[in-house]
Structure formats: structure tokens, C-alpha cells
Amino acid sequence: MKGLEVTGWGILGLLFLQIPALGWLANPAYWLSCIFFVRQQYKFSAITSLTAIAIGFGGTLSAFWFNLPNGSNLFSVLALHKLLAGFWVWLGAPGLLGLISVFYLVKMTQYPENST
User: Fold this and answer.
1) pTM as predicted
2) What are phi and psi of 20, to 5 degrees?
3) In this predicted structure, what is the pLDDT of residue 79?
């Protein structure tokens, strides 16, 4: 399954209350983290980044135990078998943003006169 398909099915899964689709909620948390980062609110950026990682990781791992419906056939299901590189890149984006936010927070506490 390609990433675009996973995104589409994730949104539909939320509408139909599928447990593994909850991992899709990491995307809005990540974008909220980006907004906080641009506004230089590094504390909130770090918190929402960690939230995005927890939601994304937990929701995706739940797909190992809860099968997702596959199309209109009630007996056809999708199950997660392994985590590929795309998953780690997707989860690494909020991780990197969180690390940079923490770096700026530490820098601001060490050198408060240089922070803006």
C-alpha cells in the first residue's frame, strides 16, 4: 500500500472509528508543532512533537493487532506485518522538530540575552 493510500484510508478510518486509524491524528499534531515552532514557542512545539510521536507510533502499532477493512468485502482485511522506511521518516519528522525545539529551549535558558 502506498503512502497516499494509507493517508486516504486513515482519514476514512477515523470516520468509521477504526482503532489503527487513530495514528493518523499524529499529522495534525505535527502541523500544530510546526506552527508553534515558527512562532518561536519552542516549549509547545516540543510537547506537540512528542504527542505526535506517541499518537503515530501507538496508532500504527495497533494495526498489528487490529485488522483494517479492505474495500467493500467484509472478509478482506489489511494487517500490518512490518514497519518500512516511510513509517520511520514520517515519525522522524516530528522527532527532529522536537529535538530542535528542545535545543532552542536549552539555548535560551543558557544564554537568555541572545534569545529573541
Assistant:
1) 0.74
2) -65, -20
3) 60
Single-letter amino acid code for the residue at 86? G
* pLDDT, mean of residues 6-16: 68
Yes or no: say if 67 and 79 are a contact pair by the CB < 8 Å rule: yes
Domain extent listing, the chain? 3-110
Question: Do residues 92 and 101 touch, judged by C-beta distance below 8 A?
Answer: no
Burial (CB count <10 Å: 0-12, 13-18, 19+), residue 102? middle
What is the C-alpha to C-alpha distance for residues 42 and 33, in angstroms, rounded to an integer? Answer: 9
Identify the CA nearest to 37 among candidates 89, 92, 96. 96
Helix (H, G, I), strand (E, B) or coil at 71: coil
34, with CB counted inside 10 A (0-12, 13-18, 19+), is middle
Cβ neighbours for 22, distance < 8 A, ≥ 6 positions apart: 14, 55, 58, 59, 62
